Amino acid sequence: MKAENFNIAVKDKISFFNKTINVDSDKSLSIRSFLLGSISENISYVNNVLESDDVKSTIAVCRKLGVKINKIKSQSYKIFGNGLGSLSIKKNSKLNFANSGTLARLIIGILSTTPNIQVKITGDHSLNKRNMKKLIDLTAKFGATFLPKNKDKFPLTMISSEMPIGIEYKAGVSAQLKSAAILAGLNSYGDTIIKEKVSSRDHTENLLMNNTQVIKIKKGLNKIIRVHGKRRLRPIHINISGDPSSAAFFTTLTLLNKNSSIIIRNVGLNPTRIGFYRILKKQKAKIRFINIKKENNEIRGDIIVKSCSLKSIKTSAKDYPSTTDEYLLLFCIAAFTKGTSIFKGISDLANKESSRAHEMKIILNQIGIKCNLTKNEMKIFGKGKIDARNKKISVKNLGDHRVAMCAFILAILTGAQTNIKNFETVFTSSPSFLKIMKSLGAKFEIQK
Predict the structure, then answer these.
(1) Which of 196, 212, 239 is the last residue of a domain?
(2) Does the pLDDT at position 163 exceed 70?
(3) Which residues share a beta bridge with 265?
(4) Among 45, 97, 241, 307, which residue has the fewest nearby CB atoms (within 10 Å)?
(5) Is the dihedral of CA 82, 86, 90, 95 positive or negative?
(6) Which residues contact 57 (CB under 8 A, 6 or more apart)?
(7) CA-wise closest residue to 77 among 122, 128, 25
(8) Are residues 348 and 425 in the same domain?
(9) Cis omega (within 30 of 0) on the bond before 164?
(10) What's 328's domain CATH number?
(11) Catalytic residues, which ones?
């Protein structure tokens, strides 16, 4: 059920805090676990699931495709998989991906090589504005077709391949497109070979690693993923860790809030997801990882953060794949550091839920921070201390959870009089965000 619309008003700064928290579970792993469990054989068990709007949309889509999914208890599910090629749906039925680009790209990868699929695909207002040309071109190589022709945004009709044959694919910075290629390859004849020069999120590969007859990975400077099609998939048994992207918001708040510290328990520390933390550690940020261990081919641990002074930031295009969701937080940090921070290689931020760099430029301008933005670069002229109690932050309905959350962080750090429209969009990824913020002492008003 769609969350009820509400706005958030913030009028006060947050005080210092010293807390231990658990953040919401990893969204990327939650979505992938349901999708892979649905095409595996026998029963998969997924625990500590993120029960956000995007994950609920994933469960609804899987059920509509004929998959039996039982909820055992809060955050724990059984998925009754029937194997590769088993998904089915009545001709010209509709699948709605709501706000989830991850769900859209990954399930289309699966369905592109699933027999006898002809389905109408759509999303919410935000998702329907996002360009899907790269996904369409990729799955067309496996033989899938999309109608109307030459249209690259939802709604569309997708017709699966009649004779899917493995392809060779050069991956870019998008982990979702790489995953779509892997998932399409699973039910194709022959091998699908994916060549990756720049490492992007590897959750899909990690979830498949126990299927040694299905996937082979040659690691190194030029990573090669080889998917052997038409092989059986073992069921999944996973306990999902906390989301490092959700943890990054509380890390940012702690670093910038004087005399504050936080311990964030059981967070995923996959090397392809922690570019944000690596960048800040280079600046001598007070961030430590402890209690590190590996489960289900994924690294996890606790994060300890203490407030400190930071230097201006410089990033390059090579930082983008492992920092995709956290650039907006780096923009916030840059505003609070003296000097000019430069972020290069960020053009893909324009194809998220909103044009993210552009929207953050507007917000930072509202609190007196100068920014220069081109297609592929952002310069932020940081001030160090910011007192914006005589200024206002206003965020319109963008349908972008990360922009809304960043605006909230800036509001409680600067004291700017802030109104954020349609804050319920945050429930797509972080349903506990406001609850945790309240426990840290943030003061805000919910306006319905």
Answers:
(1) 239
(2) yes
(3) 22
(4) 45
(5) positive
(6) 96, 97, 98, 99, 100, 103
(7) 25
(8) yes
(9) no
(10) 3.65.10.10
(11) 325
